[in-house]
Amino acid sequence: MSLDQFLQYLVSGLSQGSIYALVGLGFTLIYAVTKIINFAQGEFVMLGGMLSFVLMESAGIPMVPALLLSIIIAVVIGAIMYLLAIRSAKKASEVSLIIITIGAAILIRGIAGEVWGVDAVRPPFFTGEKSISFFGALIHPQALWIVGTTLMITILLHLFLSHTMLGKALKASSINPEAAKLVGIDTRAMGLVAFVLAAALGAIGGVVMAPLTLTSYQVGVMLGLKGFVAASIGGFMSPIATVIGGILLGVVESLAVGVDWGPFTSAYKDAIALVILLAILLIRAGRLAAEERGS
Amino acid sequence: MLAKASDKWVWIVAGLLLVLLILIPFKWFLGPYTNLMIFIAIYTMVTLGLCLLMGYSGQVSLGQAAFFGIGAYFSAILSKTYGVNPWLAMLLGATATGAFAYVIGIPIFRLRGNYLAMATLGLGIIIYILFRQLGQYTGGPDGMAGIPYLSVGGFAFNTAFRRYFLIWGFCLASLLVSQRIVNSRTGRALRAIHGSEPAAESVGISVSFYKVKIFVLSAVLSSLAGSLYVHHLRFVSPQSFDFLASVVIVVMAAIGGLASIWGAIFGAAAIRILGDEILPRFENLSLLKSWDLDYLNIIVYGLLLIVVMVFMPQGLFVGMRDAFERWRLKHAQREAVT
């Protein structure tokens, strides 16, 4: 692989990894506050992308309001999901909650398939498609949007968690729910906040990603899984670790496809992330078990 | 006295159901539903494994379709491409699947809950990708056709009528074997584990050993079901074993009820009848005229999963059974008082 090829794969890995990072942030937030893994997380990426396409192409809404509206609709769906499905299962076991979020995932996916059909769609690029040359690698302007948005969201999220009252309350109820309740934080409302934020993060990812990678009703499962891989590389701890995890995954995937040797071909691209997932989970198994016993 | 009377009734009801089951494939009775019933039997075997796993270890596997698929492809490839005797192929498939589940189960069952679910989901999708990509063996995304029938001596199971009895025989045998396991030392150990893992551990039960054991059992049952599936359809393609296929098995188990052996039949039957017979009729309603059946299925599965888990986390069948038991108890008490 020559240097410019390497740079090319690195750049595409960075932009793909940014999406994984956004999905992973959603997982991390919800898990921190509610100890739930939301298996429907990837569906919000799908919703963001599909909605932005439908609003712009079919409803003819201009780009900026269409993008905002897509994110808002996804957020409302996230809130409904939490209030109707998660919250009403008050004392559900972990397995029940897993099954409930899977139910929500395939419900969203089924409705999307029913309403929008199977075709992959491409919403318009934000700012054209004239690539920028960078040491021989071509960078698509949409890739810059993806990476830039992820960077900005990470910084905003960090500021939100450490500098606003709501953010601090969120953090408090993830660290110690009982103590948070004692100082007057409504921890159940914090669950809603986490789900809403996670839906927004997913939808933002979907909105910026769709013009470059295309989107369809069924992209949710794989993106969800890869976001989960990002969150597990980061150890489900800090947002920053999750973002690094997502970008690492994107770059590894992209370079592995670039190597094009043995199992490292585009046909097995998705399998690479899953093998990494299994490896991480198994390596961490001991620690995860200890953590659960501790909590 | 009461227990004995109800025992007698159980035997009578079971006998009647068995007669019904035997009569179903005859043309003058419910012959047109023979195929549907065969699929119910096959999916009962797959669901049974997951019901046991979920009910007794409190864990869920989101990759059960992979084991189903390994059995199916083992039978398809060995019997068609390499001309191996289909029965031997089935046996080899079940052995290989069991061994695979054991080897992967030891590390994977150190995980619990969410992490275990994610790991099994990832594993299931990896295997699905292999089915698609190893085209020179599996026929790739198009799958493979022309798989031979099972036969004994000169008697080939080449009609749906014959296969009905073969496959239901396997299904009932699986249910009875599972029943025995649940009522044995292993079953008691599993119940203890489900009650409290630390307590079970402290009386000398190896928690992870029993969890892996039930995981292996579920894999072997799924693999056998997969072999029967390909010798019935004579065709196999990866789509039958994708993520959604694993979710459908979870839906069946959720309907059937966790830890319930006979609930597995109920769950598999409810979902197959819903998907094959009931929903297609809705398609003709003017309201749903333009609706696509594939998505309608998925939507209904999603709703079922949410509603059942929110209101009856023990599963629909078990939930209804418990409600009935409570009602009977109340009734009996009232009678005793008067």
Describe the structure.
The complex is a heterodimer of chains A (295) and B (338). With 295 residues, chain A is an all-alpha fold. Chain A has one domain: ABC transporter involved in vitamin B12 uptake, BtuC. Chain A contains 11 helices and 2 strands. Chain A has helices at 3-34, 41-58, 63-86, 94-116, 141-163, 165-175, 177-182, 187-213, 220-233, 239-259, 269-294; strands at residues 132-134, 137-139. A two-stranded antiparallel sheet of chain A has the order 1-2. The N and C termini of chain A lie far apart (48 Å). The mean pLDDT of chain A is 88. Chain B is mainly α and 338 residues long. Chain B has a domain at 33-243. Chain B contains 14 helices and 4 strands. Chain B has helices at residues 2-23, 34-57, 64-81, 86-108, 113-133, 135-138, 160-182, 185-195, 197-202, 207-233, 243-256, 263-282, 293-311, 316-337; strands at 144-145, 151-152, 155-156, 235-236. In chain B, the strands form 2 sheets. Chain B has a two-stranded antiparallel sheet. Chain B has a two-stranded antiparallel ribbon with strand order 2-3. Chain B is globular and about 70 Å long. At the A-B interface, helix 4, helix 9 and helix 11 of A face helix 5, helix 11 and helix 13 of B.
SSE diagram, text form:
The complex is a heterodimer of chains A (295) and B (338).
Chain A: H1 3-34, H2 41-58, H3 63-86, H4 94-116, E1 132-134, E2 137-139, H5 141-163, H6 165-175, H7 177-182, H8 187-213, H9 220-233, H10 239-259, H11 269-294
Antiparallel strand pairs in A: 1-2
Helix pairs in contact in A: 1-5, 1-6, 1-8, 1-9, 1-10, 2-3, 2-4, 2-8, 2-9, 3-8, 5-6, 5-8, 9-10, 9-11, 10-11
Chain B: H1 2-23, H2 34-57, H3 64-81, H4 86-108, H5 113-133, H6 135-138, E1 144-145, E2 151-152, E3 155-156, H7 160-182, H8 185-195, H9 197-202, H10 207-233, E4 235-236, H11 243-256, H12 263-282, H13 293-311, H14 316-337
Antiparallel strand pairs in B: 1-4, 2-3
